Amino acid sequence: MTIPAHPPLLPYLRGLARDALGMGAAAYLEREIPALGDPPPDALMATWLGTAGFLLDDGETQLLIDPFVSCPSLPWVALNRPIQPDRAAIEHWVERLDATRVAAVMVTHSHYDHAMDAPSFAQLCSAPLLGSSSTVKIGRGGGVPVHRLVRVEPRQVLRFGKFEVHFLPSVHGPSPVGGPPHAGHVTEPLVPPAHHADWRHGDTWVLWVRHPQGSFIHQATADTLPDTLQGVQAELSMSCLVWRRSTTDLLQRTVDAVGATRLIPLHSDNMFRPPHAGFSPMPGVDLAGFFDDMARLRPDLRIDTLPLGEPRPLFTPR
Ligand SMILES: [Zn+2]
Predict the structure, then answer these.
(1) pLDDT above 90 as % of the chain
(2) Domain boundaries, the chain
(3) Beta 157-160 vs 163-170: how paired, if at all?
(4) Which fold, 9-34+44-313?
(5) Full-prediction pTM beyond 0.85?
(6) Which residues, by Cβ under 5 Å, contact ligand 1, an ion?
């Protein structure tokens, strides 16, 4: 089967219409991982902040990945109004998450919906900010002290408590109308407010997170290089749903590439609404099409979803 160069436009538009009608949302919500009444003290918990944002917490160490809660509205972004981190919202989430043990804030690419809030989280949590040279420039512009800015190298492995995080070089997915949006690198400190296109994607990473409780990959954009996941094994794939070329392509690039037996979708919610507004699908993600495809292609694969802003066990002690 030929892999299209970018997500085909007609299925994307069909998905937009199905999402607008709310199709697939019930199937999504009924797969939510339930809250544990009394989580075992060493369960590995994850709180999804929407988009590709997570707080991981094993009771000892916390990690933030792509934290994004400012979520300027779609009309605001479409009109190219300047955007900036919503400091009050970020302070609210740092407190609500009890983010007092954050060892690192990690950014997988530097578009605004992954990187804009990260400097504020790093500052409020007194944590280092890790990512590409573009992410470091965004951190500089956001006021993160230089000694807390860490430019990662391809295939670098970093350890935080019991977590082992691999930064695997990857590539940003193309849009339904062609190549990746806002390509290139951020070359100067980026001081917000700025236009959303100023957050260039920079280098793109898939994270491979290994922990005694379980291992997973975090793929924040729907593409990979042929060798991104070479030699990687993980039980769980957190896979980007939006702008997938097809569900078959998504399975090949993530789940099957690492031998995963579970999938948690990310970039599935509406990134133009803050997490406290509750779940609604990312326009064009085509939840109904995703679940139809999965029932046909891989009925045995476990699909879990996460509620917004509530901790859930990602893995429980073995
Ligand atoms: Zn992006």
Answers:
(1) 90
(2) 9-34+44-313
(3) antiparallel
(4) Metallo-beta-lactamase; Chain A (3.60.15)
(5) yes
(6) 111
